[in-house]
Amino acid sequence: MPVLPNLNIVPFISVENMMDLVLSIGVETFLKELSTYIEADFRRWETFDKVPRIASHSREGVIELMPTSDGTLYGFKYVNGHPKNTRSGRQTVTAFGVLSDVDSGYPLLFSEMTILTALRTAATSAVAAKYLAPENADCMAIIGNGAQSEFQAIAFKALVGVRKLRLYDIDPHATERCAHNLQGLGFDIRACASSEEAVEGAHIITTATADKQNATILTDNMVGPGVHINAVGGDCPGKTELHRDILLRSDIFVEYPQQTRIEGEIQQMPADHPVTELWQVIAGLAVGRRSKDQVTLFDSVGFATEDFSALRYVRDQLAATGLYENLDLLADPDEPRDLFGMLLRRQALREQLASR
Ligand SMILES: NC(=O)c1ccc[n+]([C@@H]2O[C@H](COP(=O)([O-])OP(=O)(O)OC[C@H]3O[C@@H](n4cnc5c(N)ncnc54)[C@H](O)[C@@H]3O)[C@@H](O)[C@H]2O)c1
């Protein structure tokens, strides 16, 4: 059901309105509700058009387009990844996206997606952990305390029950900021001096570092039996976070193998290295965690359906909240084929106004 009856006016969610939307719903509730949309869309995985995202790489980063469709709605996200940006006061990741009506091809929603990406990434990670993390996991290490980190922490609290956080970043100011922002939200937080200290006693390890190289954030000896790894930061060719030996003894779960084999941790492995698709676990077609000692790895890279779910969720909130602007995005001549005539009528109006 369209939010607005007039298809020529496109609702636009600005950064300000997105913040107000998230705050009016509450961050935890937003993440919980969003996760139900993400899970529902994973369950109907086979109805989606799927393609690895279209990436344009440069020396300093990447710009990507992430399209998908379920036959009724079409969505895409534009997103960049530029680790050097934070040095000049900019975000590593920024994004915006569109949801459209497949029947007419008309856009139904245009939205900021920098905040929404952090929320959908965290919600997807937490959904995966619900199926893969050890029972009663309540302690999580977060290595890389940048823009994604607080969202990850809150999603894991809301959906998995994480209460203890062990934070580490090569930049102590990042850890300080993350710990400060999460104060009063019900966490027991420890800022750690090394990643080794952070992973000690953690049931879940989240890696969310940004570096345009094959880094080794975790070595094999840092991962004990039964741990669940939520590897978020390795999401581009030549950009990984885990030592290969960890992959050899983990059960690996991925979003869309065709994309993850190019961009995820498994780019380090042969093309036929066994992986399980997360949607199959969610749909009950494959087993997630099988045993107490099993090391599970969610090799997250972010897939188009998650953005589609996020756009669907925020669109469903608009009628009740009114937190959008009407965007004059689509040309709407009185007679559909008279596009040039519309330009001429505008010119006449401008001349009339100028002669007053
Ligand atoms: N999988 C997904 O769906 C998804 C979604 C969004 C972002 N990402 C990726 O997640 C990563 C983090 O994103 P962000 O927006 O938080 O970036 P960010 O630049 O805001 O934060 C990254 C943090 O990692 C820290 N870091 C870098 N190298 C480190 C190391 N060796 N040890 C510990 N800390 C280190 C940096 O100091 C920084 O604080 C990026 O690589 C991004 O591309 C993935």
From TrEMBL:
Domain of life where this protein originates: Bacteria
Matches recorded under InterPro entries: NAD(P)-bd_dom_sf, ODC_Mu_crystall, ODC_N
Keyword DNA repair on entry: no
Keyword annotations: NAD
PANTHER family in the record: KETIMINE REDUCTASE MU-CRYSTALLIN
NCBIfam families for this protein: PRK07589.1
Similarity field: Belongs to the ornithine cyclodeaminase/mu-crystallin family.
Protein name: Ornithine cyclodeaminase
